[in-house]
Amino acid sequence: MPKIIVEIMPKQDLLDPPGKAVAGALHRFGLKEISAVRIGKRIELHYDRPITEKDIESAKEQAKSFLSNDVIEDVVKVSVED
Amino acid sequence: MRIGVITYPGSLDDRDAQRAIKLAGGTPVPLWHADSSLKKVDAVVLPGGFSYGDYLRCGAIAAQAPATKEVVKLANQGLPVLGICNGFQVLVEAHLLPGGLIRNEHQHFICRDQKLRVENNQTAWTNLFEKDQEITIPLKNGEGGYIATPDTLKMLEEENRVVFRYLELNPNGSMNDIAGLTNERGNVVGLMPHPEHAVEPGFGPDRPEAMRSGIDGLSFFQSVLKQLVSS
Q1: Which of B61, B135, B196, B212 reaches 20 to 30 Å from A56, CA-CA?
Q2: How confident is the model at residue A82 (pLDDT cuts 50, 70, 90)?
Q3: What ipTM does this complex have?
Q4: Are B209 and B220 in contact (CB under 8 A)?
């Protein structure tokens, strides 16, 4: 199924409490070399037909305006998967 | 005076807000998120809760609801709007207030009677408070950590747009201890704590005089009624 993948991460300079909690757990498992964990989102937009340039453009637009909040997050990647 | 309360799927404190409006002397008007008519109300409250299950981001989907779009339009023309907790998150996602709200720094949901300082008593919802008055109202949130860019924080402080600041304990890691904000015009106010849960003796926060006698939240709703009557 053709899909557009939108990947979103919390901004680099902001505290990411879930990432911090997971890093703490990994450290307790003995993986002390992991210096930080950050948790983002992967959003898949599925289509029942081939994806057009226009679809990608509107996905990029929604990724910025609705799917992410630019105060706290960055859209790191918008890609297409078959 | 008719004050609307919007119910979204997942709203929790809409009926408490309606009751608070009634106790303050106003007429509560239930509004539905999918309805773009605000029934000509004189002010609007966006209630607490978990609209759309907090999916995507808290308040993000509710910010796109037909009723919210109408609120944004009328708020920019001066309609008084109060966003409580999830309502504050909706106001931020709808860009009526700047910044963002993220998961509490300590990861836990927190529920407590919270002391606040009223930093700005010139808004539609705080005009019956004294400047620097200390009040106590309940707070209950999981994602109440207020964040903004350094430029935005500077602007908010310089323009006196921080309306409430946490006292004694910052419950969620909010920058500058910010508990609530207003817009440039002072008609839109958003805060994480819940004034609608401190409006009736016997059901509010404890006070030295008597248990559960705190009704500091009532002044929010009386303030907007006073402003509407005098305008």
Answers
A1: B61
A2: confident
A3: 0.82
A4: no
At residue A39, does pLDDT exceed 80? yes
**Quick one: which H or E segment has residue A54?**
helix A53-62
**Active-site residue, from B33, B119, B196, B197:** B196
Of B64, B100, B104, the CB nearest to A71: B100
- Which pair of tokens denotes residue B10? 């997942």
CA B39 distance to own-chain centroid? 21
Pair type for strands B81-84 and B43-46: parallel
Q: A50 CA to chain B: closest CA distance, Å?
A: 26
Q: Is B228 exposed, middle or buried (0-12, 13-18, 19+ CB in 10 A)?
A: middle
CB neighbours of B26 closer than 8 A, spacing ≥ 6?
B1, B2, B3, B221, B224, B225
The position carrying tokens 């799927």 is B9
Chain A: closest CA distance from residue B105 (Å)? 6
CA dihedral sign of residues B167, B197, B126, B185 = positive
Alpha helices in B45-198 (DSSP H): 66-75, 86-93, 150-158
Low-confidence stretches of chain B (pLDDT < 70) are none
- pLDDT tens digits along B137-160: 999 999 999 999 999 999 999 999
Q: Are B195 and B20 in contact (CB under 8 A)?
A: yes
pLDDT in tens, B100-126: 999 898 889 999 999 999 999 999 999
Homologous superfamily of the A3-81 domain (CATH): Phosphoribosylformylglycinamidine synthase subunit PurS (3.30.1280.10)
What is the fold of B2-230?
Rossmann fold (3.40.50)
Structure tokens, B176: 């500058």
Indicate the domain borders of chain B.
2-230
Q: What is the pLDDT of residue B105?
A: 87
Domain residue spans of chain A: 3-81
